[in-house]
Amino acid sequence: MYIGIVLAVILFIYFAMRGVSVFLAAIICTLLVVITNGLPLDKSIFDYFAFGPLGAFSFAGKFFLLFVMGAMFGRVTGESGAASSIAVALVNKLGTHKALWITVLAASILTYGGVVVFVVIFAMYPLGIKLLQQANIPKRLFVAALALGSGTYTLSALPGTPSIQNVIAAVSLKTDLFAAGGYGIFASLIMFSLGMLYLERQRKKALENNEGFTPTDRDLTLISADQNEVLPHWGRAITPLIIVIGTIVAPRLLVLFGYTNVEGSLVSYALSQPLLWPSVALLVGIISTVIIFPKLHKNTLVTIGKGADDAIIPLIATAVVIGFGSVVTKTEGFISLSQWLLSLDLNPLISIFISVSMMSAIVGSSTGGLQIFLSSMSDSYLDKGVEPEILHRVATMASGGFDSLPHCGAVVAVLAIAGLTHKEGYKDIGIVTVVIPVIATLSTIAIYSI
């Protein structure tokens, strides 16, 4: 009963690395799981894969507005000249060799401020493309820098981060977002330091090998403005991004600084809508961009419509991977694996790391792996005497390691948006989002156990 799951995951990874369509790969691997595990075909396809709680189209429906708003904001930011202006200003201030630092730090600020990872990808992409053009850095390194800044320490380790993973653990274990904060900071420093060392080393190697920026047709659209065109001042260019971030974090800041009349207010509504509110913020950003930049007034709806089109393939590609993971969780093999992991005679924190890592790897999702672990296994570790706070932090960090194998939905999405195949772009993503977070998590466990 395990062989089908293992073969399906290996085959999915193989397809991803060979550049096979993720849609075809998801269908083939899902059918392999269904056949080898004796699952009912109709229920597996129409319930588990498509419309179940973790189904592909359940995910697509839930995140549709967010994807579309993010893509439209990215499109108007690019075609207005705002992204070019910001990129040029940053390069002029910090130097072209700091492009990767700029990307990592900007993505970190956005995600720690509460911006959903997919929104960060859309918001940063137009700016990043111009940065790469100015610095002549391979796009694979920009994608890895974006992954480091938005999908590692701000997702799982930094205390207080409003990431879905941190919130899920806090709700399940009745801890708070700052649980085991010192250990989270320790792990974050490891992830950031090793990640930047790796990216800078790769940048220098690329320079020595004459490897530079190679744009796709979509990239050329974003950077096709006449080089003699007078770009807007960077202060005006960054205004829409500030508006988006400000709209998202304003409710949290109001509560933090003493706003008490929350119940029944817009602040309460915003805090209760972790998906809708960022979409509203992006809509405000789109409208602001159109108002601020006259260049967009001539073909406003056409430009925004192209942005909406940009969202469809990344959304569906991500959704079908989620659907595959949903089918896997319904197999007897997956259930038996969960029980076996609990029976291992290991240091409880190592056992937690293995359990969460394997679940996240199988479903290709930190959120899915963590949620499954917390709902089915966390009580057993609490009964063994593991403190809720360290369980919170270790489990959350462990979910952010092996979740990022090639079939991970977020990996599929960022590569699709960037126009890169797994063969072209996954190696660097894998180093900064799998290898380095695993090192950080194991180092944290070692420090705690001393």
Structure description:
The protein is an all-alpha fold. It has 2 domains: about 1-55 and about 320-450, no CATH class; about 65-310, no CATH class. It has helices spanning about 1-20, 20-35, 40-50, 55-80, 80-95, 100-110, 115-135, 140-150, 155, 165-175, 180-210, 215-220, 235, 240-255, 265-270, 275-290, 300-330, 330-345, 350-365, 365-375, 380-385, 390-400, 410-420, 420-450. Helix 7 (about 115-135) runs antiparallel to helix 8. The longest helix is centred in the C-terminal third of the chain and has 29 residues, at about 300-330. The protein is globular.
Overall, the morphology is: globular
Q: How much strand content do the residues show?
A: under 5%
Low-confidence stretches: none
H/E element sequence: HHHHHHHHHHHHHHHHHHHHHHHH
Mean pLDDT: 84
Decide which structural class fits the backbone.
Answer: mainly alpha
Rg: 22 Å
How many β-strand stretches?
Answer: 0
Q: How many domains, in number, for the residues?
A: 2
- What is the terminal-to-terminal distance? 39 Å
Indicate the percent of residues in helices. Answer: over 70%
Number of H/I helices: 24
Largest sheet: none
Write the layout of secondary structure elements.
Blueprint (H helix, E strand, L loop, with lengths): L1 H17 L3 H15 L4 H11 L4 H24 L2 H13 L4 H14 L4 H19 L3 H13 L1 H4 L7 H10 L7 H28 L8 H6 L11 H4 L1 H18 L9 H6 L4 H17 L7 H29 L3 H12 L4 H16 L2 H11 L1 H6 L4 H12 L9 H10 L3 H28 L1
Helix pairs in contact: 1-2, 2-3, 2-17, 3-17, 4-7, 4-16, 4-17, 5-7, 6-7, 6-8, 7-8, 7-23, 8-11, 8-24, 10-20, 10-22, 11-24, 14-16, 17-23, 18-19, 19-20, 19-22, 20-22
